[in-house]
Amino acid sequence: MKKLFLNLNKILAIVLLFGFVLSSCEIDKSINVDPNAIAEAKVKSVDGIYGLLVALQVNAADSYTRDRSRIHSIWSWQMCAPPGIARPQPVAWNEYVMTTDGPVDDYWVITFRGVKIANDIINFTPEVFTGDNEALGKTIIGIAQTYKALLLGEVAATYGSIPITQEGTNAPAFVTQAEAYAEVQKILDAAIANFATAKAITRDLNFGGNGAKWIAAANSLKARFYLHIGKYTEALAATNAGIVAADGNLYGKFANAAGEYANWGMWVQNESEPIRGEKLFVDLLKSEAGDTRLADYFAPNADGEFYGFAAHSAGKYPTAVVDGKETNFDQCVRMVKYSQYDEAFPLISYEETVLIKAECAALANDLTTALTNVNIIRTAAGLTDFTSSDKDVVIAEVLKQKNLELYLEGQVYHDMRRTGTLPEAIFVNETMTNIRWIYGESEKNANKIMPVDNNKLCEETNSTKYGGKR
Predict the structure, then answer these.
(1) Taking 80 as the threshold, does the pLDDT of residue 317 lie above it?
(2) What sign results for the dihedral spanned by CA atoms 401, 407, 409, 413?
(3) Which of 37, 327, 417, 441 has a CA 20 to 30 Å removed from the CA of 127?
(4) Which residues contact 263 (CB under 8 A, 6 or more apart)?
């Protein structure tokens, strides 16, 4: 982990600079007296903490929307990489090929860099915001704790066993996936307590320090991470304290300026859009007439037709080609949503909270609540109300709507592992290759006490079909 938990000065020289640009806020230039080495004493200042806070928000947006979003969207067959378009790497993701360099390494490094920034905020803020500013300091710590929980929860879901503490430059011990999820819940509880006396803060790019909105977002995250590991009663309870309207959504923020672009926007506009809508997903959007999300997400071909690309061979469930245009990427849909440089991306949302509530209520045999909530999503998408007295049918509809609603957010991949519904499970040497990410080369080179890659490391989040507990 020595390569991950980098020297504080080296991290800050990068993230403070980028964070300050995105914030459009003037920061005390004295903290950047040397662009290659920012003194810790300068960081332990009001402007230093504010700079770290903005840098953390930038990091979380990058971590959540970059490689994890792309690969999870491909593995859940929302998107695919047609052969013949620019970069070869995404095409390999269609076949679940992973190597220890590239995305698996980048995602790990970026995420734990964010954890390091969050830890610095949590540790340094009490020394800086004292006396009358203590409540403001607690607000900042609560925000840092929320982002830290988001980062750790997602990396635990993706890799399984992860480190949750770091002491100096010593190689950190890895905990089980169950222990990582328990730690995430503790962090979110601490964040909620700190928001009890929240104060306004301009460097909070989402809520400006609004404690009620942060408490709701933290509870929605609690619901997500309880859902991941099948704690449905706890997840349902957390949704009842979660986000209650779309203006409470927590976003990764980007800007229309070089160095601040959204990851998906760069892929669409700078790299010839190597990832396109997959046939399965586009067909689901077309399965009911009037679904407004089809045109929200994608642009049709020149003839006004919406075809997803059939990336998987004919005959495999459920993508048998029915029209030759489905194998011609020039005739298939192009991205509209998340195609712009400055387009915000949801990290946790009202819509996700509603759908978690719907699934958990159905599992508890409260079909009235389940139907009420899934129909919130259907109505917003221009669809008529859904009704059924069959619990399994209701749950299937909830999961379908979650797949369609949380486009590119990666949560559908976690749902599919948990429910045993990945569209295709790939076996290599009798080992499934697409139910967790392998560890990257940086950690393997630096940490000799880390676990060996094994699917059982993700057993808390996977169904029994994939060797897990769900």
Answers:
(1) no
(2) positive
(3) 37
(4) 62, 65, 66, 69, 70
Structure token pair of residue 62: 């990058």
Cα R_g (the chain), whole angstroms:
22
**pLDDT interval class at 427 (50, 70, 90):** low
Reading the block at residue 20, the tokens are 């300050």
Is the whole-model pTM more than 0.85? yes
Model confidence over 430-446: pLDDT tens digits? Answer: 566 889 999 999 999 99
- Which CATH topology does 8-244+436-453 take? 1.25.40
Q: Quote the crossing angle between the two packed helices 67-75 and 103-128, to the nearest 10°.
A: 130
Task: Give residue limits of the domains in the chain.
Answer: 8-244+436-453, 274-335
Residue with tokens 């245009």: 325
Contacts of 99 (CB under 8 A, 6+ apart): none
Backbone φ/ψ region at 329: left (φ over 0), alpha (ψ -120 to 50), beta? alpha
Give the tens place of pLDDT for each residue, 213-251: 999 999 999 999 999 999 999 999 999 999 999 999 999
Give the residue carrying structure tokens 């982002």: 147
Query: Torsions phi, psi of 33, nearest 5?
Result: -65, -25
Contact 5, 168 (CB under 8 A): no
State the maximum Cα–Cα separation within the chain, in Å, rounded to a whole number: 70
Q: Do 348 and 220 meet the contact criterion of CB atoms below 8 Å apart? A: yes
Sign of CA dihedral 327, 330, 336, 339: positive
DSSP 350-405: HHHHHHHHHHHHHHTT-HHHHHHHHHHHHHHTTPPPP--S-HHHHHHHHHHHHHHH
Which residues, including other chains, have CB under 8 Å from residue 429's CB and lie 6 or more apart? Answer: none
Q: 275-288 as b/e, with b when 16 or more CB fall inside 10 Å?
A: bbbbbbbbbbbeeb
Question: Comparing C-alpha atoms, which of 337, 381, 374 is closest to residue 353?
Answer: 374
For residue 334, pLDDT over 80 is answered with: yes
DSSP 122: H
